[in-house]
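Hi there, hope your week has been kind to you so far. Thanks so much in advance, here it is.
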Amino acid sequence: MRASESMLQRGCWVTVWGCLAAVATATPPAEVIVDGVDQAIYTHLHQDLLYPYMGDNRGFGPEHDLARDNIFNEFSTMPHLAVELDPFQYNGNTYHNVLATQTGTDFPDDIYVVGAHFDSVNNPGADDNGTGTALVMEVARVLSQHRSSRTIIYAAFDREEQGLRGSAAFVADHTNDNIIAAFTADMIGHDSGPYAMNIYGSSLSTAYINGISDAISTYGQGLAPFLAGSASFSDHWSFESHGIPAFVVIERCFQCNPHYHTPNDAVDNPFFPDGDYLDYSMPSNLARAFVGLMVDEIGISLWHDNDDDADVDKADFAILQRCFGADPTGGCVAFDENRDGVIDVHDYDNYLDAYTGPGDEG
């Protein structure tokens, strides 16, 4: 319901509560947002957009550019994201990271990066690193629907397998920006035994390492975290080596997977005739943990939920009334979902769509 059938047109301005009948029970915001992660959607992103099947080649083969363009197009369907192909040079050729920026509403100069590399070692790269790439896309899908107080850049890095080239180029291009931290995922879908993830990062990143460990335990639905020490093998190192806190999460005992970096790193791996080479609950539950960490760490809330109680309710409406006609600053910023710079009838309609119930005071 939008401006073409606004509250004013429907006669609801004075008797708005006659138009709102739902009843809701308050839930912590993180739980509401985390529950937006959908394993079926994650599986679609991985299987249908990233060419992870036998014979595909996301290294230097034709599927590399096709997957890159699919990532770009998928990001472009998500609300509140500015999407770009960010070029860099490697070995005399131009490659591109795919970046989707969700600008913060309160502290836009504070930047967090959620990243994974989408290239492979001339193979399908279903686990390494289609699984991490799909996580970034699913986290972006969930969080882009909500209001982030700080800026998030969702990054699909290229040419990690040639020495972290894409993430290194990204860091070099953003030396004047205030990147607070980077959270990365690499090879997270094959269960070699323990249903668990290793977390790598240096002492520089201890606070965020502990944060994702706690988030896995809290939101990961049985997934277990292990602190594995410092390492330089993945894109997090491009950030840490420049003094930016970062971590990478990778499946426990990833060395036990004999198929990564081989042509059999594929969804339809012939050694797994039942189609269970990948356990999609692992990366989906890790995506829940990433979302939970982001909500807890940087301030993410529902649009129109001014008091951040995970209910868009009467208390929020009272503030919305006072904000009508004002610039979306301070206590009014939560209502400017369309980011047009004014609180108006469009925002009332958006509020109605988001309404979850009268709340405890109703």
